[in-house]
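We modelled the chain as a single entity of 285 amino acids. Its sequence is:
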Amino acid sequence: MADESPARLLGKVLRLEASGGCQDRATTGGMADFMCRWLPRITASAPQQQAEALSQLEEKFEAYSDLSPQQRAGLVDQALDLLQELATDQPEAESAEGEIDQVCWDDSVAQLKGVGNKRAELLAALEIYTIGDLLLHCPLGYEDRSQLTPIANLEHRQRQTLQVEVTGKGQIIRSGKLTIARVPVRDETGQCTLVWFNQPYRASMYSAGTELVVTGSVRVGKKRPTVRVQEAEQVENLPEDWQDRLVPAGASLCGDYRAFTNDAASTDHPGTEVLPCGSCRTGSG
């Protein structure tokens, strides 16, 4: 988080609050507490005129919980406009290499490196607003990657995980409003077809020779088996010990949430420490 300035962080949290309809849920403890904790950090280095405006803004946010959603939206817009003005007049200084900041259990997920506006909205859809929400969120299930299933042993209507190699160009089939992407793959025991529904980009996403680890629901018929993919990752992007892991499933966000949660919660991830008090310390990796 060392490359995240207070102004940029506040902007992300404010946009997250706005995307949720200004319900005072972007941070645990409320926007009043959060803004009154972070605004002074910006005020201290702002020009005098803007520093006064920031101080007035802080006073207005003290009553945030008592305002109507419409009044909150107006205040959020005012804060975003002021932060934009500051960004224009005062470019952000580069952070010192290796600098380490502390994030607390109740801080917004927007403080974590790698969480932009889109990801914050996706996490909010899962009612994940804070660091604590993220670390306590229960996954849909777990994949045991030490138990890979060969294509020859795939079982009908079972959820199974396998390692395969793409053998050729994918194809797209359209049936009414349904779009089906099909990608041919193989392993040492046979061949099968990977299937995605309403994700046409998957047909051209993987070139021949690409190795994948996929999890999905198997269909075995008279022709080659098919796997209705729920999770798919390229082997080259996985850690060296990926076959020794129990991995939280995250199909609800097409794998992005799962990968991000693994990084955010891992105590052996460079620069991240889960503190006894329930805080995390994150540095530039």
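As a brief sanity check on the tokenised model: The two ends are 9 Å apart (CA to CA). The helical segments are 6-19, 31-43, 48-61, 69-89, 117-125, 131-136, 256-265.
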